[in-house]
Amino acid sequence: FRCEQVKLKKCFANTNAIKTSKYNPFTFLPLNLFEQFQRIANAYFLFLLVLQVIPQISSLSWFTTVVPLVLVLTVTAAKDATDDIVSKCVLCTISPLRSEKWMDVQVGDIIRLENNQFVTADLLLLSSSEPLNLVYIETAELDGLVYFFSFHSEYNLKPAVRCEPPNNRLDRFTGTLTYAGQKYPLDNEKILLRGCTLRNTEWCFGLVLFAGPETKLMQNSGKTTFKRTSIDRLMNVLVLCIFGFLAFMCTILAIGNCFWEMNEGSQFMVFLPRQDGNNAAFSAFLTFWSYVIILNTVVPISLYVSVEIIRLGNSFYIDWDRKMYFSRYNTPAEARTTTLNEELGQIKYIFSDKTGTLTQNVMTFNKCSINGKSYGDVYDYTGQRLEITKVNTVDFSFNPLADPRFMFHDHALVEAVKLEDPEVHAFFRLLALCHTVMAEEKKEGELFYQAQSPDEGALVTAARNFGFVFRSRTPDSVSIVEMGEERSYELLAILDFNNVRKRMSIIVRSPEGKLCLYCKGADTIIYERLHQSCSKLMDVTTEHLNEFAGEGLRTLALAYKNLDEEYFNQWKQRHHEASTELDNQESKLDELYEEIEKDLLLLGATAIEDKLQDGVPQTIEQLSKANIKIWVLTGDKQETAENIGYSCNLLREEMNDVFIVSGNSPEDVRQELRSVKRLYHFSLDST
Ligand SMILES: Nc1ncnc2c1ncn2[C@@H]1O[C@H](COP(=O)(O)OP(=O)(O)OP(=O)(O)O)[C@@H](O)[C@H]1O
Ligand SMILES: [Mg+2]
């Protein structure tokens, strides 16, 4: 790899420095003091201190106030300082083999990253130590999930890059790279975002595209606002009331003093003469301030400190809580802030993801429907469904490449594969070809799959065991072993998955030279794009799909289509033009995809099980007893989602007023909510 400084026009930002901490050593004292004196009590004691230095008023010596005030300020400052020490510094190498602090990295620099290093800017991947320039990254910081992504990149020469302006969309990137007059499309797959960590990859080189506050991660983090808890607010109100009370008492006492001066003051002078005579009003004024000092103990300065200390202790209890310790990943609960603990008890709403949060994210291929026949349930000779646990698992020993951990119980499917049923073969061929899984073969015959989505991993593994083994891929071919025979398919296009399209397709040329498009995706989406000739098969498959979804399984429909060479070449040309375009790239690609993904022929459907995590139903039950409202987000088919809702106690039998809002525009949704409201006479939150 040649390290050359890239001449890139700097349209956006400059250095990678990001301020994640509030203070630095010089600003700490003034800033922190300023913040602390915004608290009423602290400001009050400062004011008191000023009063105490005036000898006419003061009856107490000044240090009676200074000591507690300084104590309070230091304790709080110490706590703030420890909360603030977070930012770390990572070193990386810049061409030509220079070491720099990551905060000095600039747009256009080429960076070398090493395994387990944190990616500190948005990079265009140039090359890596792995075959095909693959990189594995962990994206836990970005989306809270731990999984591996794979990237490939084929550029390793002086490029010029044009790309979209900085934005906060983590799942999208458009740009072009020009080299030697050739334009290459750049997409999300070739970008490493700040916030991920390099894994299983010795090294990689990347070109900095966005740095510092322009990185997608930083564009996503909103302004940090100072959060106040309701106890804070209550304390402020209480302290204000106490002030009112104090002022009231001092006023009464000052008025009393005024009367006393007028009536008795002159006689008192005999006994303790005063130089400036007796001025009742002025004396009352001074008395007022004296009492402000004398009665200072009414204002509980220690209240704030006590609450802070209680919170600190409380956060230790959270960290130490054994019931919140997850031994499998060795993760205890962690209180990231010490100021908001008590709000935990005030939670009203929980927003949760389904896959991987409620469920284990361990997908198993359970059932399928191929050409109108359902596989997966096992029946005895009288037609009774048998308990899966009582049936022998299928023996895959005919296939030396099978994954030994894969289990399946229905022998009929293996029989169908062995009898060379063409639909069954096409079904598994599709599963082996249409995906974005990467294969690793460390030893001959020992395959490991790295899948971005665990569903795909499960499907490819299923195909592998039934004799359609996905073996390896390059940017323009996919090699599979079909029933023992090695075949390489030329990969012509990947029409990638996103959550709007809800489907993915690939276009391949078989070793015999036939062009074919394979598509898998959500059943509703696939059904809209099927050829009329499969309407009968559609009805049967729909029944199977509903059955699968009724058991809470995640379903996908599979379809294919043979393509005409001439049409495809012309389509491919338009596809290339669209993908190197900067504006409207996405909508143009979508149109092209839409055009080619129609008149498909249905093959069947798959059903994948993702079990609930331990204790989920119990937890949800307890939460709903506490009157906490729970929202769960999922992209599953409606029936599957409802079913899982029932199995995790989110929906319960006694809830007979469950209703579905299926509108796609704000107006539709509002309309539907209104009609439901009329029907059930309940009140909707204004949200
Ligand atoms: N790899 C894939 N290939 C084709 N279609 C897919 C793929 N993954 C999901 N789908 C389809 O797209 C739909 C939306 O999936 P998406 O992954 O966006 O949902 P999600 O929000 O991740 O939901 P969940 O958290 O339940 O997985 C799914 O219901 C499924 O039918
Ligand atoms: Mg998903």
From TrEMBL:
Q: Which UniProt keywords apply?
A: ATP-binding, Coiled coil, Magnesium, Membrane, Metal-binding, Nucleotide-binding, Translocase, Transmembrane, Transmembrane helix
Domain P-type ATPase N-terminal residues, every copy: 15-66
**Taxonomic classification, please?**
Eukaryota, Metazoa, Chordata, Craniata, Vertebrata
Coiled coil residues, start to end: 568-602
The answer on whether this UniProt entry bears the keyword ATP-binding reads: yes
Q: Which GO terms describe its biological process?
A: Golgi organization; phospholipid translocation
MF term (GO), any: ATPase-coupled intramembrane lipid transporter activity
Q: Which PANTHER family match?
A: PHOSPHOLIPID-TRANSPORTING ATPASE FETA (PTHR24092:SF52), PROBABLE PHOSPHOLIPID-TRANSPORTING ATPASE (PTHR24092)
* The protein's Enzyme Commission number: 7.6.2.1
Statement: the UniProt record of this protein carries the keyword rRNA processing: no
Q: What Gene3D superfamilies does this protein map onto?
A: Calcium-transporting ATPase, cytoplasmic domain N, Calcium-transporting ATPase, cytoplasmic transduction domain A, HAD superfamily/HAD-like
Membrane topology (UniProt): Multi-pass membrane protein
Task: Report the subcellular localization.
Answer: Membrane
In this chain, Mg(2+) is annotated as bound at D353, T355
Q: Which cofactor does it need?
A: Mg(2+)
- The active site of this protein is located at D353 (4-aspartylphosphate intermediate)
Of which family is this protein a member?
Belongs to the cation transport ATPase (P-type) (TC 3.A.3) family. Type IV subfamily.
For the protein in the UniProt heading, the enzyme class is translocase
Protein name per UniProt: Phospholipid-transporting ATPase
Which residue ranges run through the membrane? 237-260, 280-305
- Residues annotated for ATP binding in this entry: D353, K354, T355, E456, F497, K520, R554, T634, G635, D636
- For this protein, what reaction is catalysed? ATP + H2O + phospholipidSide 1 = ADP + phosphate + phospholipidSide 2
Cellular component annotations (GO), alphabetically ordered = plasma membrane; trans-Golgi network
Name the InterPro entries for this protein.
Answer: ATPase_P-typ_cyto_dom_N, ATPase_P-typ_P_site, ATPase_P-typ_TM_dom_sf, ATPase_P-typ_transduc_dom_A_sf, HAD-like_sf, HAD_sf, P-type_ATPase_IV, P-type_ATPase_N
